[in-house]
Write a structure and sequence with these properties.
Elements (H helix, E strand, L loop, with lengths): L6 H26 L4 H11 L11 H21 L3 H32 L3 H13 L3 H10 L8 H26 L3 H34 L4 H21 L4 H11 L2 H28 L7 H28 L4 H10 L5 H12 L5 H43 L2
Helix pairs in contact: 2-11, 2-15, 3-9, 3-10, 3-11, 4-5, 4-7, 4-8, 4-12, 5-7, 5-14, 6-15, 7-8, 7-10, 8-10, 9-10, 12-13, 12-15, 13-15, 14-15
């Protein structure tokens, strides 16, 4: 029997294989107790450019689905916060947030300049090494039963500050990638600050009205209006040189109360599906042969930025009057990098502003940090306890 494999048929087979493999990778990650992001990236590397079995026909749909995945990721992130919480978080954590930027963006800038990637590469890597993974951090805190701990509000305040910093950073990055020049960059900053300010004020005053416009008792209608609004706002934001991801994030902030909670429950499976495709697509477009030359730099960045995040969390928790164990837990909770780091370099690669080495370095770095983050959060308590016991034994022996 002769099989007729048209392009559409091949695309269906490839997509089916991708989804099927993603299911096994997600299951394996949850059994081990780590984020599935590293495994999704590895899956993309295996089936992409220079991989074991390159896929071709499904690439167009996968790329579009990946863009939707970014929008849903940021929309869901915005739904987790209210405008009041964001403003309160800014007031509480602005000093620790500035320290966070200084300590964690600087290593990325230095490595990019040393490798000769210029100001654009430095701006990209600064964001990659700065931003923690809110998704991984929240999951780790939940899995370890630390949501009620005294240091958790400190961690969440820093994550809120980082997300708001991204709302300003991404439009600047978009303007730089588009080659708009100094005036264009200044305009991008002004537009970003204006949009963020208007949305926060509108969300504080008219959040219930925005929620009422989108909400519907029929789940199907509610879902259609929600996704439709997210895509429209993301598209309009992109047209204004404000990142589409930021547009979705700000829409999520504007939806509040019980409607936001219902939206989260409704969108969660879709978010997970399209976000998984986003990470796979990024892996598909990264040549694994480019990883070995940058592996040492990725490890170096991982070591340095693990230490800097630990210092950031420790300092912020200390200012809040939290004991040593809580300070260590706060720092460890911030270590993981993930979705935002990939979003940043994905924008740069799509714009053709950086070469494949940058993508390879970021992929390797995120692979390391997405695994290291949850491990650090789990082992920090036992390590601190052993250190305390050893310190007590030394003091007892040295006492007369």
């Amino acid at each position: 029997m002769n099989l007729h494999l048209s392009e559409g048929t091949v695309a269906l087979i490839e997509l089916g294989a991708i989804f099927f493999v993603l299911g096994f990778l997600g299951r394996a990650a949850r059994k081990v107790g780590i984020s599935p992001i590293p495994l999704y990236l590895i899956g993309g590397l295996a089936f992409g450019v220079g991989g074991v079995i390159p896929l071709g026909q499904a690439s167009e749909f996968s790329a579009t689905a990946g863009e939707i995945g970014v929008i849903l990721l940021l929309l869901m992130l915005g739904l987790e916060y209210t405008a009041a919480e964001l403003v309160a978080g800014m007031r509480k954590s602005w000093s620790a947030g500035l320290l966070d930027i200084a300590l964690n963006a600087t290593p990325g800038v230095i490595v990019a300049l040393v490798l000769g990637w210029g100001p654009t590469g430095a701006l990209v890597l600064a964001g990659v090494t700065y931003i923690s993974s809110s998704g991984i951090a929240a999951k780790v805190l939940s899995d370890l039963g630390r949501l009620g701990n005294r240091e958790t509000p400190v961690v969440l305040s820093l994550l809120v500050f980082e997300d708001l910093a991204m709302a300003v950073y991404l439009p600047i990055l978009t303007a730089v990638l588009a080659g708009l020049g100094l005036i264009g960059n200044i305009q991008a900053v002004i537009i970003a600050l204006t949009v963020v300010g208007v949305v926060l004020v509108s969300a504080l005053r008219f959040g219930q009205r925005v929620s009422a416009i989108i909400y519907n008792e029929d789940r199907e209608v509610f879902l259609l209006k929600l996704i439709g609004a997210a895509l429209l706002v993301a598209g309009l934001a992109s047209a204004m040189q404000v990142s589409a991801a930021v547009g979705a994030f700000l829409l999520g902030i504007a939806i509040s109360g019980s409607i936001a909670n219902q939206a989260v429950r409704l969108l969660e499976p879709l978010r997970d599906l399209f976000a998984a495709l986003f990470f796979v697509v990024f892996g598909l477009n990264t040549d694994p042969r480019a990883i070995p030359p940058v592996l040492g730099w990725a490890v170096l960045l991982a070591v340095i930025t693990t230490v800097t995040k630990l210092v950031t969390g420790w300092w912020a928790a200390e200012r809040a009057g939290i004991a040593r164990m809580g300070r260590a837990r706060a720092g460890a909770a911030l270590v993981a990098r993930g979705e935002f780091s990939i979003v940043i370099v994905g924008l740069a690669v799509a714009a053709g502003a950086v070469d494949g080495r940058v993508a390879a370095l970021v992929t390797t770095y995120v692979l390391i940090m997405a695994v290291l983050g949850p491990i650090a959060a789990r082992v920090v308590e036992p390590v601190m306890r052993r250190g305390s016991r050893a310190g007590r034994r030394v003091r007892v022996r040295s006492s007369p």
